[in-house]
Amino acid sequence: MANKKYVIQALVFLAVISTAGVIIWKTTAGTWKTDPIATSRITITTSAIQHYDYQKDITFNTTATGAAVSTNQGGGTITTGFPVAVHINSSSFPTAADRTHFFNDTYNPAGKRVQFFDSDETTVLNYEVEYYSTANQEALYWVSVPTVTGNSSTDKIVVAYGNDPNSSDQDNKTGVWDSNFKGVWHLGEASTPAYDSTINANNGTWSGNTQTTGQVNSGANFNNDDEITFSAKIIPLGAKTVSLWVKTASDADGVIDESGTASTNHGSSFYITGGKLYFINSKATDGQCRFSLPPNTVINNNVQRHCAYTWDGTTNANMVKAYTDGSADGTGTALTTESIAASHNLKFGNLGAPYATGYYYTGIIDEIRFSNTNRSAGWIKLEYYSMAKTNFNGDNGVSSPFINFGSQEATR
Ligand SMILES: [Ca+2]
Ligand SMILES: [Ca+2]
Ligand SMILES: [Ca+2]
User: Fold this and answer.
1) What is the CATH number of domain 181-372?
2) pTM of the full predicted structure?
3) Which of 70, 163, 167, 272 lies 20 to 30 Å from 332 when distance is taken between CA atoms?
4) Coil, strand or helix: which one is 321?
5) Ligand closest to CA 190
6) What's the gap in Å between 83 CA and the centre of ligand 1?
7) In angstroms, what CA-CA distances link 30 with 26, 35, 105, 163?
């Protein structure tokens, strides 16, 4: 970033001495370009879209034919944006020559030299690279979109590539996940640690798990004796959202846990019984359930399911909510509020001690997220649709696309 500032200052100086002139440069495609915004040079950075060779629109459809979300999601600034999964492959980049421009080891090493812009083609968007392979010509980016407009088919961002005007990595993963996110685990690793992409860096320890195809890039496989453990209690107290993808091989046992079932245990558990992934929260005072919410939907084994749970932290009626595959799927009411930390440090794939024996999960888990706020129904629906078509084994049978990729264009 220091280098970038230095270059920006140099360009500001350049503007002072050349205000009467027209700035031109030669692109890597071999054509000369003039600077269309030379008169506002003070705002330009070296990552201005004109400094790349190619651009492609990424358009969001939140109308009834897409994600069917009527309200705006995200905030007005980059740091409170909505994270969208952008999957670059032969589907989104169907032309082989276009993929060659994107997957270019000179201009885009490790996938971190491209730039995402808002629709104004000026506002730079934060992004995280979860996966990038030149050999496979496939990549998975998380891009923070300032606002995804409800009931719109024209809202878009732009990816710019070809050329490397900054000669420095442009990714900024902690800028993608806003301060409401308290943990985001992509589970794309093959071994310890299980990285948390948020600024909190709550990384976990793999124990026996193997990497496998998940819903979004890789996920973690659990075969009834594996777990990912943490050295802290991480599920937020009170208002919270917990979401994940599961593809079960068995219809029972602990998926996420900071609690147990004994009278002295308290905190949140996510536990499958009877084929339903319950959200259970127990009280510190007597260990009894504050609430126990089963979704309406039975999770069928061997099917990717997006499961999300929210609680506003109050005892108001029906403010504990379950969502399955982006749709409302049951509510509950908390008996009391929550003010005491959970009994056990966080675990994925098992219940906390003393219940570690016999309560292991069997199946795949991917993309676990914790937030310290109860996300809206629209937010959760968009999370589902943003991720539903990123399955590296196919597109999950989702028939109403949220993301559409335009054709490659020379930068304007
Ligand atoms: Ca993943
Ligand atoms: Ca095992
Ligand atoms: Ca089990």
Assistant:
1) 2.60.120.200
2) 0.87
3) 70
4) strand
5) 1
6) 14
7) 6, 16, 19, 11
